[in-house]
Amino acid sequence: MSAASCLLSEDQFLCCICLDVFTDPVTTPCGHNFCKNCITENWNVNVPCQCPMCKEIFNIRPDLKVNTLLTEMVSQFRQEAQQKASSSSSEQQAAKPGEVPCDVCTGTKLKALKSCLVCLTSYCETHLEPHLTVSGLKRHQLMDPVENLEDRMCMKHDKPLELFCKTDQTCVCMLCFVVDHKTHDVVPLKEEYEGKKAELGKTEAEIQQMIQKRRLKIQEIKRSVNFSKGNAEKEIAEGVQVFTTLMKSVERRLNELIETIEEKQRTTEKQAEDFIKELEQEISELKKRSSEVEKLSRSEDHLHLLQNFPSLKAAPPTKDWTEFSIRPPSYEGTVVRAVTQLEETLSKEMKKLFEAELKRVQQYAVDVTLDPDTAHPHLILSDDEKQVKHGDVKKDLPENPERFSNCVSVLGKQSFSSGRFYFEVQVKWKTKWTLGVARELINRKENIPLSPQDGYWTVCLRNRKEYSACNNSLVRLSLKSRPKKVGVFVDYEEGLVSFYDADTAQFICGFFGWSFTEKLYPYFSPGPNDGGKNSAPVIICPVNQTE
Q1: Pairing between strand 473-476 and 466-471?
Q2: Reduced to 3 states, what is the DSSP secondary structure of residue 202?
Q3: Long-range Cβ pairs for the range 244-253 (8 Å, 24+)
C-alpha cells in the first residue's frame, strides 16, 4: 500500500467540492470520487442529480457506497503525513499561551503558521505543506493564524461563509445563497471586504484627522496657557515693581515726616537745655551771694559788717526771665503736607498704570459701524455709519423688531460673543451722551432703565458736567477732567466692561463679575438736540495706541 501511495498524486486525495482530503469517499456511476457528505448535500440542492465533475445527469438518484479501497489509501496518506509531521515536530516551536496551535498536531500542539479559510483549520509548518504544494489546496485562502475558525462556518449548512448578503448585512455560505438569499444582493466576501476596508480606511483617515485636530487644539491650549502664564508673570513683575515703588515712596515720606517732627523736637530740646544751663548758672551765682549775705548778717563785729556791706550791696548781673518761655513747636499741617506729597507721587504712579492698562486694552481694537436698522427715527447717521446725532424731525422709517422706538439710541452692526474687544468714541462738545454695550435681547420698544440687570452696561453725561455709571439709578462719578474721547473695553469671558478717558488714560469706571450669555453690541445715544446745545455728533474714532 505504501508503494502504491507513492505512485499517486496528492491531488487524487482531494474532493473537488470541499477541496479537502476525502472523508468517507464514495464513487458515482460515472467513476468520480467525492466526500459522501459533500455529494449528498450537492444532490439535495440540485435536482436532477448531476456529477459536479463531468456533468452527467442521473435521472434516478444513485445509491452511493463508501469506496473501501480509496478510504484505505486516504487513511494511509493521512498516516504518512502525520508521521512526517511528527518527525519534524521537534524542529518546530510548541504553541505558547496566547498563540494559535495547529489543529492537526496530536500530542504537543505546535505553533500554527497559517489558518485556511476553506478548511477552517490552522496548520503548523509541517501540516501546512500540502497547501503549498498540492495544486487543489493552493487555491485555498490562507491567512495569519486565528482562533475560533468554527465561527467562519455556516451553522445551518456546515459550509464556509464565502459570501456576504448586502440586503441582510450578514455573511452566508453557498447553500444559504441558493436557499434563502437567491433574490438578495449577494457578493463574494472579498468584494465586500475590499469595500469595507476602503470604508475603514476612510474612517481611519477621518479619525486620524480628528486626532490631529485635537492634538493641534491641545497645542493651542498649551500655547494659551503658556501665554497666560507669561502675561501673569509679567503682570506680577509689574505689580511688584509698582507696589515696591509705592511702598518705598510711602516709607520715604514717612521717614521725612518723622525726621521733620524729630528735628523740631530736637531744636526745642536744645533751646530748653541752653535756657536751663543759663538759669542754673545764675542760680549758682545767687546761691554763692546768698551764702555770703547770710554769713555777714550773722557777724557780731560792727566794724567788720560795715566795712564789707558795700561789696554785698551790688547784686550780680542776671536776666529778667519773666518773659522767657519754651513753646512746643507746631505740627499742624505736617502730616497733611506729607500725605499731599505722597498723593502726588501716587497720582503719577497711577497715571503710569492707567497708561499701561489702556495700551494693553487698545490691542483689542475692533472696527465698529452703526446699524441703521436699529436707529431711533430721530437719529441722523453719517454715510460712513461712523457718526450719529439727534435730529429735530422724526423720520418715517419702517418699523422692525430691531429698531429703538422709545430710547433715542442705536446699536453697532458688529456683535461679540467671546473674547475681548475695544473701541473709542469722540464726545467732544457734547452736553449729553450715553455709551457702552448692550445684549442682543434687550427691550427696544419701551423706556426702561439703562442697567446691567436689563442688559445695558453704560456710562453717561448729563447737564454738561455730571458723569454717571448707569446701574438702575445713576451712580455719580468724580472725574478730574472732562473726557473728549471715551474708550470702551469688554472681556466677554471675565464678565468685564471698562471705560477710559482715551486722551488722558484716566480710568472712568467699570462693571465687574457679570456672566454674559448673549451676543453683545456696542451701544450709542447722542442725547437730545437740546435746542442746538447738544448738536455735535457722537463719532466712532480709529484707535491710535498710546505711546
Answers
A1: antiparallel
A2: helix
A3: 245/349, 246/345, 246/346, 246/349, 249/342, 249/345, 249/346, 249/349, 250/342, 253/338, 253/339, 253/341, 253/342, 253/345
User: For residue 449, what are the CA distances in angstroms to 97, 373, 455, 474, 538?
Assistant: 79, 22, 10, 10, 21
For the chain, the domains span: 2-150, 153-184, 192-323, 363-541
Alpha-carbon torsion, ordered 173, 174, 178, 180, to 10 deg: 0
Q: What is the mean pLDDT of residues 117-144?
A: 84
Nearest-angstrom CA–CA distance, 512 and 506: 18
What's 363-541's CATH class? mainly beta
Residue with cell 546768698: 290
Predicted confidence (pLDDT) per residue in 275-310, tens digit? 899 899 988 888 888 888 888 888 888 888 888 887
Alpha-carbon span 381 to 433, nearest angstrom? 15
Same fold yes or no, 2-150 and 363-541: no
Give the model confidence (pLDDT) of 34-53 as tens digits: 999 888 888 888 878 889 88
Task: Find, among 92, 145, 93, 140, the residue nearest to 119 by Cα.
Answer: 140
Give CA–CA dist 451/275, Å, rounded. 71
Topology of the domain covering 2-150: Herpes Virus-1 (3.30.40)
Give SS3 for 286: helix
Q: Are the C-beta atoms of 420 and 491 separated by less than 8 Å?
A: yes
Is residue 510 packed enough to be buried (19+ CB in 10 Å), middle (13-18) or exposed (0-12)? middle
485 phi, psi to nearest 5 deg: -140, 125
* Distance between CA atoms of residues 161 and 177, nearest Å: 10
